[in-house]
Amino acid sequence: MVKYWVRRVRLAPFDSAKPHPRGVEMASTMTFTATKKNLLRILAAIAATAFLVLTAACGNADASGSSPSSSSTAMSKVDVAVSVNQWESIAKTIGGQDVDLHVILSNDNVNAHEFEPEANDVAQLEAAKVVLVNGVGYDQWATNAARKGRGDIVDAASAGGIKMGANPHVWFSASVRKAAAKAYLAALEKAAPQDKATFEKNYQTWLSGEDKLDSELSAARAELNGKTYAATAPVSHYLMKDLGLTCETPTGFAQAELNQSNPAPEDIQEFQNLIKEKKIDLLVDNVQEANSTTNMIVEQAKKAGIPVVDFTETMPQQYPNLDAWVMALTKNIEAAAKK
Ligand SMILES: [Zn+2]
To answer: What pLDDT tens digit does each residue of the chain (339 aa) get?
Structure first.
């Protein structure tokens, strides 16, 4: 008898979809004798029993579903918003279990320069306690929304000393990545001083990965230094600089791309001559912002036997983090330069 009862009680929480056995028993007895008052009382008892079973089941699910090494509860996590997914992995690695992360733009099939946030994106940026933005006008919509909120804004470009008007693709710069990570760490520590030690530890983890990337970039630079390239869009600028390549993109063409305007016919002609005369070792194409002009240039380069390296603005989903993406692009550049 006792054994049976114990089994019932243990099983009940896992079987919350079915009515509680005791409730069923009570409900069937009731049909004979119940007055209206009794009926209500019994129904209340059934409801209370069912509620207990459900809360037990939910409590159980919560306990097994939450992460084991979290140093704080869900309630005290720092609400962090990141404008574009190029900065997501830094935010995630340093924030660890102590942040609740919202990334606004992760789609590499849209023109990142023309992105407009939805109302709920703006609401997340306004509500966040820390907002990590790229800066230098790349994601002005995020800075504008964050300024209306009360959170701390970490501007990656300005942390790295990049001024407005400069090339905005700063996530590809080793020095900007390091400066941005430090500024973000400081903002997290201000937002949640109780988690300072964890953030510091996470930052060191991130830094050791970044140092490893640095030495791989140096090794690649030893091979690539002095090679030349031209780009259909200026997305690769900082990585190419870190790798020691020289940019030969006609100035007018590059400036038009930066301004999101159409290059002048003479700039396109200059680009075509560069390819015809094989004055570049490789061509960089920004496939996320392809248009008829850039497609024509890519076709010409292929015909001329100039290797083409594809870039995107937004980080493709296949990469676990920014460093892995930078490394993969570096390998592509190395392979192309050997052709
Ligand atoms: Zn761009």
So the answer is: 333 333 333 333 333 333 333 333 333 333 334 444 454 454 444 444 443 333 333 323 333 333 434 444 556 899 999 999 999 999 999 999 999 999 999 998 888 999 999 999 999 999 999 999 999 999 999 999 999 999 999 999 999 999 999 999 999 999 999 999 999 999 999 999 999 999 999 999 999 999 999 999 999 999 999 999 999 999 999 999 999 999 999 999 999 988 888 999 999 999 999 999 999 999 999 999 899 999 999 999 999 999 999 999 999 999 999 999 999 999 999 999 988
State the amino acid at position 339 in one-letter form.
K
C-alpha 47 – ligand 1 centre gap (Å):
59
CA–centroid distance, residue 164 to ligand 1 (Å): 15
Give the predicted TM-score (pTM) of the model: 0.77
Distance between Cα 53 and ligand 1 center (Å): 55
Structure tokens belonging to residue 23: 């409730």
C-alpha closest to that of 164 among 182, 143, 194: 143
Ligand 1 centroid – CA 2 distance (Å): 71
Distance 122 CA to ligand 1 centre (A): 22
CA of 37 to the centre of ligand 1 (A): 72
Question: What's the N-to-C CA distance of the chain in angstroms?
Answer: 81
Centre of ligand 1 to C-alpha 339, Å, is 27
Query: Which residue carries 């990590």 as its tokens?
Result: 132
Amino acid at 83: S
